[in-house]
Each structure stands twice: as C-alpha cells, then as structure tokens.
Amino acid sequence: MAFIADVLSRVKPSATIAVTQKARDLKAKGREVISLSVGEPDFDTPDNIKEAAIRAIKKGETKYPPVLGIPPLREAIAAKFKRENGLDYKPTDTIVGTGGKQILYNAFLTTMNKGDEVIIPRPTGSAIPRWC
C-alpha cells in the first residue's frame, strides 16, 4: 500500500510559480523585469496597513472571517466604489476573496456547466511558458 495518494500523480507544477521564479532569476542577474505573475506588488506593505494588521492581531481578530468577508471591509469596498468610481453598490453587493485565482475559480464554478465553451486568451511572448 502506497503512502501517497494516487491523485498526487496528476498534480502538475504551478505555471504561476514557474513564471514568478523565472522573473526572480532574471532580476537576480540584473535584468529589469516587470512580473505580472503572482499579483504581488513590487513595493513593501505601507506602514499604515502593517500597523492596522498589528492592531487587529492584538484585538484578537485572528479567527476565520465570514465567508463573504467582514462587514467593515465590505462597507469600505462599497464606499470606495462610490467615492472613486461613482458606482452605487451596497455592502451586500460585495464579497471578499483570498486572491485572483480563488475569485476566478468561484466565478467559473458558478457560471459554467460541463460542455460549455470557454475561450481563454493567452498572451504571446517568451515570458509565458508554452505549457501555460
């Protein structure tokens, strides 16, 4: 009996991680690179955000949040859309996710059925591995 499940034989390396590592390698060699892979900013987290995170931890806000996101964050998102984009959304019209991949997965999961045709454009160029 194998210790590792058979399903692991179907797991393939992450294209996102491969592109990210390629960008890191090129940067280490002195190349100027703009990486559009993992969605991390190319700057340090601003101090006000770090301080807010520390305050939240000290207040004990360390448990799983509601699935749709904490209400104050959803309210802030709706306020941002109104203030900066002139869009009138209610907090109940928003949800918060852990990142782009999760959001896209959820959107596809809830809108597509087996047999639906999906067209996914792929940019051309040497920065994108052929197996993406």
Helix and strand layout, with pairings?
Elements (H helix, E strand, L loop, with lengths): L14 H14 L18 H12 L12 H15 L14 H12 L21
Protein architecture, described:
There is one protein chain. By secondary structure, this protein is an all-alpha fold. The protein is built from 4 helices and no strands. The chain has helices at 15-28, 47-58, 71-85, 100-111. 1% of the residues are buried. The model has no long low-confidence stretch (mean pLDDT 86).
Oligomer: single chain
What class, by secondary structure content?
mainly alpha
Gross morphology: extended
Q: What share of residues are in beta strands?
A: under 5%
Distance between the termini: 34 Å
Produce a short descriptive summary.
This protein is an all-alpha fold.
Please describe the structure with a list of short key phrases separated by commas or semicolons.
132 residues, 4 helices, mainly alpha
